[in-house]
Amino acid sequence: MQSIPNQNQAAPTPPPVADFSRQSRHTADNIPPGFPSVPNARAAAWIRWCTDMCRPDRVVLLDGTPRQRAQLLEQGVAEGVFIRLNQSLLPGCYLHRSNPNDVARSEQNTYICTPARDMAGPTNNWLDSRSAYETLRKLFDGCMAGRTLYIVPFVMGPIGSPLTRVGIQLTDSLYAAASMGVMTRMGDIAWEVLGQSDDFTHCLHSIGDCDPDRRYICHFPLDNTIWSFGSGYGGNALLGKKCMALRIAGFQGFAQGWMAEHMLISGVQIDHEKTYVAAAFPSACGKTNFAMLIPPDDYKRAGWRVSTVGDDIAWMWVDHATGRLRAINPEAGYFGVLPGTSPATNPNAMAAMARDTIYTNAALLPDGDVWWEGKTAHPPAHCVDWLGQPWTPGCGRKAAHPNSRFTAPMRNNPALDPAAEDPAGVEISAIIFGGRRSSAVPLVYQAFNWMHGVYVGATLGSETTAAASGKIGVVRRDPMAMLPFIGYNIRDYFLHWFRMRTAMTDCPRIFHVNWFRKNSGGGFMWPGFGENIRILEWIIHRCRGRAYAMETLLGWMPRPEDINLKGLALSPADFAAAQKVNVEEFKAEILAEEELFIKLAGDLPKEIIFIRELLISRL
Ligand code: OXD
Ligand code: MN
């Protein structure tokens, strides 16, 4: 097993843990009867402190057993949190309808809470930690009266990996508790991993009254703590995911010399050779589809297979022995977007959600199955929409919410990579950045080197989608697809990326892809989905020194003859059109990148300035 590297960086100070025990009013003899006991003294004190503040009627400790899970789900049905779906069609599957005001991540209510604003930087909402605790304490005070508090101990990462971490979520949402059971390694295993250590992420969550004006998703990176109030939506409420595995872990990785990134990890098998790639795409840009890609028949016959290690988050560190980057997926499940997912676009995702899955804001069919736009070629004659209203085609509304989701265990994925549970992780050969861009940005190019690749990632732009609340379809700069998930100052985040280079002797090659470029008629210029293997093929051959590329303005690009177009209704000229770089459009693109750089103002790392100057001089 690899140890975490000791980087030549600013001396990492381990994040201090807030001393909740001192604030606890509980003593050994006023613990309420029946209060669950947990084996870690530090956790016990913190849980009692939170319980004291939130004052639930009941406290239930989740142990991770299938028996308890079944009981919880049935209890959810009795309480109206879940609708039991047709168990012969979808065994173990339930439907949840969220509050209609609570259907996406609320970035405007997401805060990094630190003693100084500079630690959060210009791209995060910031709150002074003391005043944030103060504000939230008032909201949490008594907020669970009449409710049950679930203690959800969980592990992020395969057991035994050097990066694996424990979190404990306290929540009054049965939906969040049950979903955490899918998304993480949840239950007694967490106590085994934690032992008597105080190194766990303190996650406190209440759905409160689900009022958007009283919604706070607060991260305290210095205290290894998350307090989330007023939302039950996945990214705001399943605190192991975006909050811990990206924002808090990202900060810890910065301090300790490793990386927490918004990236899928997949393995590409050609005969006996396996290559792993990590790829960052902004939310709802087809990341889950790419992670579960099924190659076209010709490729399958030639022995090509793609397998999934993870579909959303990668934790990566440098292996001292090889000087190369290794990665694990900290999650144990998928929280994927439903609309557009079908047996044709992503059969592996369909198989993954065929059992033991929680569907959120999908439409309900009369036979107890679920439906969403794009699941079938033709809509059902009628169903009940995500709001619980009768729905017919042509009624002018969507049946499923555009950000409706499935929460499915990764073990259900037929293409799960055997290394997904390997504590040693997988070696990453390529990092791929991608955005949703209908114009200007070519289908694929390779950065000249790591430093240039960091620039390519830092200037990533994408058209916004329904995964976050706000306007849809405008180009937003989304560095490394991490803009909403960087838990500290973006200046330091970029520096961290540049400095990782010095820790590696052989670094991954960096690429940029855009599956979404459109022609003048509005049609996509590239077929996407399984055909993306053709682009992956070039990427893998580049990493292994086997493919040709031309030097261009943007980076290394394949010629039409370097990509296998056989079997596609796409001529070499069509491919060249998808690759075309229009200098005038690119000048506009470079100016658009200013939007982000201006935010960083005097803090822009010098590497970015130099690389940008080189790019401009190539123009
Ligand atoms: C997600 C997101 O849910 O990125 O994965 O929004
Ligand atoms: Mn994501």
Question: What are the key terms here?
Answer:
9-stranded mixed β-sheet, 28% helix, Phosphoenolpyruvate Carboxykinase, domain 2, single chain, binds manganese (II) ion, Phosphoenolpyruvate Carboxykinase, domain 1, Phosphoenolpyruvate Carboxykinase, domain 3, alpha/beta, 22% strand, 619 residues, binds oxalic acid
Instruction: Outline the biggest β-sheet.
Output: 9 strands, mixed
CATH class of the largest domain: Alpha Beta
Count of strand segments: 31
Instruction: Work out the helix count.
Output: 17
Instruction: Please bin the fraction of helical residues.
Output: 25-40%
Ligand inventory: oxalic acid, manganese (II) ion
Strand-pairing-aware structural class: alpha/beta
Indicate how many domains the architecture comprises: 3
Q: What is the correct CATH architecture of the largest domain?
A: Alpha-Beta Complex
Structure described in brief:
With 619 residues, the chain is α/β, with parallel strands linked by helices. Helix 12 (450-458) runs antiparallel to helix 13.
Account of the 3D structure:
This protein is of the alpha/beta class. It folds into three domains: 18-80 and 105-257, Phosphoenolpyruvate Carboxykinase, domain 1, CATH 3.40.449; 261-332 and 417-618, Phosphoenolpyruvate Carboxykinase, domain 3, CATH 3.90.228; 334-412, Phosphoenolpyruvate Carboxykinase, domain 2, CATH 2.170.8.10. It is built from 17 helices and 31 strands. The strands form seven sheets. Strands 1, 4, 5, 6, 7, 8, 9, 10 and 11 form a nine-stranded mixed β-sheet that branches. A hairpin with a 5-residue loop joins strand 22 and strand 23. The radius of gyration is 24 Å and the shape is globular. 52% of the residues are buried. The protein binds oxalic acid and manganese (II) ion. The site of manganese (II) ion has 3 residues, from loops. Manganese (II) ion is lined by residues 262, 283, 312.
